[in-house]
Design goal:
22 strands, TIM Barrel, 2 domains, alpha/beta, 12 helices, binds pyridoxal-5'-phosphate, eight-stranded parallel barrel
């Protein structure tokens, strides 16, 4: 796509350095988004490669000179080309299912750099992960330890394990995405950690290699990380006093992004603080691991959608678009905020709208009380759509899942075709 002549300097959108308005049009890197919407249709996810690499760069800078690995938590966005990009940039992966492991392998990632999290791993998933040679199982309960040991012995292997501890700190985020407090299903309770490590060390099919925690998601404050680190290091001392050596310390993911003026610390600044704490406590020489998801991809993506109808009402005006909760589930699930920007600024009158999709649910909204100057046929970008959107999307209402494009400079690569109806019906059978 050829750049058009510009009359004014591009203006980057706050919090989205790779997204800019040039004159009236919205561009991602060197590509005009409206051109992509015309070429590929809507809804359409578009990602900036530069934005992902720059988010990763902040972590890499933060860990410069350290023994550290960054394991991209791929449930945030597990499209193959995105995994390929992170694998090529040197990342490992944090997976939560056997299906995710197959995606890593299909994208050219190395099994040895995979860690397997999640409270409900099945025996079949364990067997496959052992056979592939994954780096570590992050185990979340004593019963999982027993099963993993059995499965490993049956495969003639020893499974490398870390135990996910629940440090009982409040990440001060949405309750559905807070995971480090007592009373939620994740990890082993702080007071049971020692016992659980002793059990792990005694099981013949396991080799204890590390400890991990993950306190929640969309965390915008460094303090919960510092608290969690203190709690985890206390445990490390107690565990090692029992003669169980921990090679790696894994502090999980969870760093937030700017959805609506949020101000999370930058990854490099946060880690400078955390590493100083680690050094002061004498653990700076350990192999460090992190599992960021959202902060690597969230603000690298937008979802393009077309305005179908405007429906004025007595109490509210509705702007009905062709993207919906099946494409962008976060507002329906967490009342989450996503910025919404017209792809082209036109001359229409500004009106306050609820931006909603076509799905038959009142929860199907993408944004509330948004001032937009639009008319039917105009296109919009839903911002911050790189994380937990496509990977959480569904075929509800027999809507095909959207297509995806990866932008690299002035190049645009289609990385996923839109689902056809045939794709959706393929596995179903009539009776008789
Ligand atoms: C989801 C998840 C992550 C990533 O969380 P983000 O908030 O996307 O960074 C990391 N580790 C585990 C165990 C997770 O479940």
């Amino acid at each position: 796509m050829s750049p058009s002549p510009m009359t004014s300097a591009p203006r980057a959108l706050p919090g989205h350095p790779h997204l800019a308005r040039r004159d009236t049009d919205l561009w991602l890197e060197g590509v005009r988004l409206d051109d992509l919407a015309r070429a590929h249709g809507t809804p359409l996810f578009v990602y900036s490669k530069a934005a992902m690499l720059s988010a990763l760069g902040a972590y890499q800078r933060g860990f410069a000179g350290r023994q550290a690995t960054i394991h991209y938590a791929m449930k945030a966005n597990s499209s193959l080309a995105i995994l390929q990009l992170f694998a090529r940039a040197g990342c490992g992966f944090d997976i939560v299912s056997g299906g995710e492991l197959e995606r890593v392998l299909a994208a050219g990632g190395q099994a040895a750099k995979v860690i397997f999290s999640g409270v409900g791993k099945t025996r079949a998933e364990m067997r496959r992960a052992l056979e592939a040679g994954i780096g570590c199982f992050n185990v979340e309960s004593e019963s999982e330890l027993e099963v993993l040991s059995e499965v490993a012995l049956a495969c003639g292997q020893i499974a490398p394990v870390s135990i996910r501890v629940n440090p009982n700190v409040d990440a001060k985020t949405h309750p559905y995405i807070s995971t480090g407090l007592k009373g939620n299903k994740f990890g082993v309770a702080h007071e049971r950690t020692l016992q659980t490590y002793q059990r792990a060390a005694s099981l013949p099919g396991l080799k204890v290699v590390g400890i991990d925690c993950h306190i929640g998601s969309q965390i915008t404050d460094g303090a919960p990380y510092l608290d969690a680190m203190d709690r985890v290091l206390e445990l490390v001392q107690a565990i090692e006093a029992q003669g169980i050596r921990l090679q790696h310390l894994d502090f999980g993911g969870g760093l937030g992004i700017d959805y609506n003026g949020d101000q999370p610390p930058a990854a490099d600044a946060l880690w400078a603080q955390l590493l100083a704490r680690l050094d002061a406590r004498g653990f700076g020489d350990r192999h460090l691991m992190v599992e960021p998801g959202r902060s690597l991809v969230g603000n690298a993506g937008v979802c393009l959608t077309e305005v179908l109808y405007l429906k004025p009402g007595e109490q509210r005006n509705f702007c009905i678009v062709d993207a919906a909760m099946n494409d962008l589930p976060r507002p329906a699930m967490y009342q989450a905020f996503h910025g919404i920007e017209p792809l082209q600024q036109g001359a229409s009158r500004t009106t306050r709208y609820d931006v909603v999709g076509p799905v038959c649910e009142s929860g199907d909204w993408l944004g509330r009380d948004r001032d937009l100057a639009v008319q039917p046929g105009d296109r919009l970008a839903v911002l911050s759509a790189g994380a937990y959107c496509m990977s959480m999307s569904s075929n509800y209402n027999t809507r095909g899942r959207a297509a995806e494009v990866l932008v690299d400079g002035d190049q645009a690569h289609l990385i996923r075709q839109r689902d056809s109806v045939a794709d959706q019906l393929r596995n179903e059978r009539l009776v008789g």
